[in-house]
Amino acid sequence: MGSDSLMNTEILTIDQFSPNPDTISRAANLIRTGRLVAFPTETVYGLGANAIDSTAVRGIFEAKGRPSSNPLIVHVADSIQVLNVAREWPETAARLASRFWPGPLTIVVPKRSEVPDEVTAGGPTVAVRCPNHAVAQALIRAARVPIAAPSANRSSELSPTRAEHVLKGLDGRIDLILDGGSCPGGIESTVVDVTGDVVRLLRPGLISIQMLEEVIGKVKVCDKSAGVARSPGQMAKHYSPRTKLRLIPGEDLIDDLLEAIRAGLRVGVLTFSRNDAPWAKSVESGGSYVNLSDNPELAATQLYDTLHRLDQEQLDLILVEEPPRTPEWAAIRDRLARAAVLDD
Ligand code: TXA
Ligand code: MG
Asked: Which CATH number among 3.40.50.620, 3.60.21.10, 3.90.870.10, 3.40.1190.10 corresponds to the domain 10-221?
């Protein structure tokens, strides 16, 4: 299944609320026999393989072109199945799971020896998550094994929120895509590490730091530099469209837009609040303008889908309005900062 040997990628449509058991059973059999299946979750599409089959897990890295140093999240059906992969399940993990599972929270705990090194990048911990999506749940239960699944995109590209996005990146590299429509959450899960004295936030997501702190008290936010070693998904350049993207403070947006248009560029503009006047200029000059919601949860739902769309419009540049510097926007700011080109 390497880059040279293309396989046939099958797509099966499936109802996101009441998945057809025959379809699930086909997908589960593929997982059980070491194959790769992309499936929807409440955050983004995952690229799944049997988490305790090291050969299958290596296939994920190969299909994505992902560095083997970046560990995978293991998806379980409930807090009982987690005991098959976690050597310890600390009190903090239990409290977080009972409040937020099933849901978009990934918890890093000590791993059991049965979990192959490929999953954890050789480390002593494993990241676990119980997804809140009927297709993901049914698939894990039918497969009767925990499912390792990163986002179903080529490494460092945008995460997929629709089956079409998965196909664009991974066609010919994976066995099956379960097409359950668009993912309701739209950005990846929050990742926390509960193995140390303090709980550490490794990746912001839809479960905010406030929500976590209401349940377990103080959470330490890891800045990017501190995060690189602990959570390689925090590598600066990640979640990127192919088109150059720049994150611009709202007050500078019009100047930057006009300058780019004067330079003859076709520009896409993405904002989170404004819905009128000056941005239309980008459209007049052959570009594009999208205003997402000023509600961060709604904006998250649309974010990747919009970036995927803009990425297909042959633009020279995407200018994104910097979202407010408030905690509710932390996850979106994080993803946009990674998508932006940092070197100009
Ligand atoms: O919402 C999500 O989390 C999606 C869906 C499919 O569940 N998955 C996802 O996986 O975003 P991925 O591989 O794209 O991101 C996993 C993140 C990475 O930042 C990775 O470095 C981190 O979790 N991670 C995985 N195992 C870890 C571990 N043992 N310690 C610290 N970070 C870990
Ligand atoms: Mg990813």
From this structure: 3.90.870.10
